[in-house]
């Protein structure tokens, strides 16, 4: 079943917060260069799901295999898996005491022992990719929300990940800033990186995703390619959700 | 149709900004300051007048006592009883004892050199003349040669610790106390947040009992009780025991201050650090602590000031620190009746040092806010 182009495999994953079950029997396979959008009401477990993939949350049952390495308590494995995953958060989570450039070079220098010059060269390349090279010496607090989120995307790219995880990247942004972030994400998608994105931006899902997953109550209710998903939802719960947000 | 005149057909109106007028005279300058700060409303005006009257009554007599009628030169006979002014000669005469205690005169250059090195380092710090990494390194290296200068050994004549005293002893206890208790406090604070139950309970088990006990009790335990529990033949000197007591006491408080800072760090910072592949120590030391300590600079400086002032409690376990020497000097039969001068000088020295620390804290805050 494991083929060479499977990037992420989740098999019967269960997770509880105390007595509350947040993930119920999740089965998900993500192939190389696939772009997956996960949507669903708040509390449906979608954030928890992608946080389990890079071990920001620990799953209690089932298996999660990322690029051939299984997530266990083994710290070496966790480290290896995190080095292949870039993550972008809803609240940016930039390091406020470091400049934009330092934010980008921090992990390559301190976790990968990359020479500073090389790290800065790579960082500037990614800053150009997200179109804010001129902000390199500023502190995050001096940037707008949209700029901060683009810095966060560049920071994730700097560790040269095989997979990008986005956890509601535009939910904390003003309306006119959403577009600048989405544009960057669309561009990334075009470059063939594997992406999992939790978002309510249905326009983004329609144009970019290969597959849309709808979650509710900790379960994957429905998954389909975007055309089918939006035009022909099979489950009443999906129809209700779509009717409320579209 | 639009109620506004259409621009089509007519010429475009050119906007010319008006020149700024000067502000009304009552709101700026000295008059403005007086009005907003001293005389805004009848209540504050009355308070201002009362305060001025009070100062008028207090300041001139104080000035003439402390400066104009004071005795600045001569010996103990210059301050004959019944003399009106302050007898600063007394302070000059006792100055050496106040600074270094009973430290032998022929080796006086050693504490003077040590003190000089200390003052240079303190100046480099408070005026931000060196980068922080170098400063931290110096603060942890410099005490060793200074200790060697004062204590002797290695080709210098040893000077027994019972002869150390005065401001030198206070500063020594406070400096070593701060240098060790701050990192120890940080470790305790991190330990208290640890996921490992053992580390967490050890940290809580140190912090809470120590915080629940007055410093005097700890000093008594260190000085009087600990020798009773030590095996026969093992002898740890009194000064070291007292220093350890101060460090333990201070680090428990530092830990709680740092914990406050750690709690102010959003969980997202930990997530982000993990997600880019930083391990616990790297993300703690390089991401979390720099932010956490920044939040608590005022309280940390407060703890340092408190620690410095608390060193005056060592008098109760028989060490003659600065305050102890001031007290002893005031009881010198040759110089009786000069307690006021002695304690005013003592208060002044404490104030100068603490105020300098407090100003340094302010400048650190401002510097960090600029980033």
Major β-sheet profile of chain B: none
Q: Unreliable runs of chain A, pLDDT <50, ≥5 residues?
A: none
Class of secondary structure makeup of chain A = alpha/beta
Question: How would the global form of chain A be characterised?
Answer: globular
Describe this entry's structure for a reader.
The complex is a heterodimer of chains A (246) and B (371). Chain A is an alpha/beta fold and 246 residues long. Helices cover 38% and strands 26% of the residues of chain A. In chain A, the strands form two sheets. Chain A has a six-stranded mixed β-sheet with strand order 6-7-8-3-9-10, with helices on both faces. Chain A has a four-stranded antiparallel β-sheet with strand order 2-1-4-5, with helices on one face. The longest helix of chain A is centred in the last third of the chain and has 16 residues, at 175-190. The relative contact order of chain A is 0.17. Chain B has two domains: 25-68, no CATH class; 93-103 and 159-370, MetI-like (MetI-like fold, Orthogonal Bundle). Chain B has 371 residues and is mainly α. The longest helix of chain B has 31 residues, at 339-369. Chain B is flat, with a radius of gyration of 29 Å. The relative contact order of chain B is 0.09. Chains A and B meet through strand 6, helix 3 and helix 5 of A and helix 11 and helix 12 of B.
Furnish the topology, listing elements before pairings.
The complex is a heterodimer of chains A (about 250) and B (about 375).
Chain A: E1 6-17, E2 20-31, E3 35-39, H1 46-53, E4 61-66, E5 69-70, H2 75-82, E6 85-88, H3 100-110, H4 116-129, H5 145-158, E7 163-167, H6 175-190, E8 194-198, H7 202-208, E9 211-216, E10 219-224, H8 226-231, H9 236-245
Parallel strand pairs in A: 3-8, 3-9, 6-7, 7-8
Antiparallel strand pairs in A: 1-2, 1-4, 4-5, 9-10
Chain B: H1 29-37, H2 42-68, H3 88-100, H4 109-126, H5 132-141, H6 143-151, H7 166-192, H8 197-211, H9 215-229, H10 238-263, H11 267-275, H12 280-295, H13 297-310, H14 322-330, H15 339-369
Helix pairs in contact in B: 3-7, 3-14, 4-6, 7-8, 7-10, 7-13, 7-14, 8-10, 9-10, 10-12, 10-13, 11-12, 13-15, 14-15
């Amino acid at each position: 079943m494991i083929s060479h182009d499977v990037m992420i495999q989740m098999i019967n994953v269960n997770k509880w917060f105390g007595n509350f079950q947040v993930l119920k029997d999740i089965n998900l396979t993500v192939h190389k260069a696939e772009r997956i959008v996960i949507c669903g009401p708040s509390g449906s477990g979608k954030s928890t799901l992608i946080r389990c993939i890079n071990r920001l949350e620990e799953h209690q049952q089932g298996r999660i295999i990322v690029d051939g390495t299984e997530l266990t308590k083994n710290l070496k494995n966790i480290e290896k898996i995190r080095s292949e995953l870039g993550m972008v958060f809803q609240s940016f989570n930039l390091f406020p005491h470091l400049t934009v450039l330092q934010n980008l070079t921090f992990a390559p220098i301190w976790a990968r022992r990359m020479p500073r010059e090389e790290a800065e060269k790579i960082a500037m390349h990614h800053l150009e990719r997200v179109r804010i090279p001129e902000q390199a010496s500023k502190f995050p607090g001096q940037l707008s929300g949209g700029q901060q989120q683009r810095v966060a995307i560049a920071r994730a790219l700097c560790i040269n990940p095989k997979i990008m995880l986005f956890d509601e990247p535009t939910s904390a942004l003003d309306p006119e800033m959403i577009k600048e972030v989405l544009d960057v994400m669309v561009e990334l998608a075009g470059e063939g990186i594997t992406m999992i994105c939790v978002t309510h931006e249905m326009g983004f899902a329609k144009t970019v995703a290969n597959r849309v997953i709808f979650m509710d109550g900790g379960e994957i209710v429905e998954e389909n390619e975007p055309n089918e998903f939006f035009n022909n939802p099979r489950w009443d719960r999906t129809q209700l959700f779509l009717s409320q947000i579209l | 149709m639009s109620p506004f005149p259409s621009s089509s057909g007519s010429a475009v109106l050119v906007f010319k900004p008006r020149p700024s007028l000067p502000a009304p005279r009552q709101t700026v300058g000295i008059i403005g300051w007086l009005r907003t700060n001293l005389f805004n409303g009848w209540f504050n005006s009355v308070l201002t007048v009362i305060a001025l009257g009070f100062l008028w009554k207090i300041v001139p007599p104080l000035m003439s006592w402390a400066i104009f009628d004071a005795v600045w030169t001569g010996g103990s006979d210059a301050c004959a009883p019944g003399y009106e002014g302050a007898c600063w000669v007394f302070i000059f005469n006792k100055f050496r004892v106040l600074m270094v205690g009973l430290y032998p005169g022929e080796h006086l250059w050693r504490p003077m050199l040590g003190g000089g090195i200390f003052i240079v380092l303190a100046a480099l710090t408070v005026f931000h003349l060196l980068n922080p990494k170098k400063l931290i390194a110096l603060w942890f290296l410099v005490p060793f040669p200074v200790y060697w200068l004062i204590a002797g050994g290695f080709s210098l004549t040893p000077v027994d610790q019972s002869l150390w005293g005065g401001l030198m002893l206070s500063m020594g206890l406070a400096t070593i106390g701060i240098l060790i208790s701050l990192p120890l406090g940080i470790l305790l604070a991190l330990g208290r947040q640890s996921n490992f139950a053992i580390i967490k309970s050890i940290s809580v088990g140190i912090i809470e009992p120590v915080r629940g006990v007055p410093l005097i009790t700890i000093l008594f335990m260190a000085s009087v009780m600990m020798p009773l529990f030590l095996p026969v033949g093992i002898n740890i000197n009194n000064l070291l025991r007292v220093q350890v007591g101060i460090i333990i006491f201070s680090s428990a408080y530092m830990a709680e201050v740092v914990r406050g800072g750690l709690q102010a760090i959003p969980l997202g910072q930990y997530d982000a650090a993990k997600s880019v592949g930083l391990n616990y120590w790297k993300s703690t030391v390089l991401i979390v602590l720099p932010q956490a300590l920044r939040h608590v600079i005022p309280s940390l400086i407060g703890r340092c000031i408190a620690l410095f002032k608390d060193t005056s409690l060592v008098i109760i376990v028989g060490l003659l620190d600065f305050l102890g020497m001031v007290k002893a000097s005031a009881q010198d039969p040759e110089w009786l009746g000069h307690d006021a001068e002695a304690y005013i000088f003592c208060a002044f020295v404490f104030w100068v040092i603490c105020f300098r620390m407090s100003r340094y804290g302010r400048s650190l805050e401002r510097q960090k806010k600029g980033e």
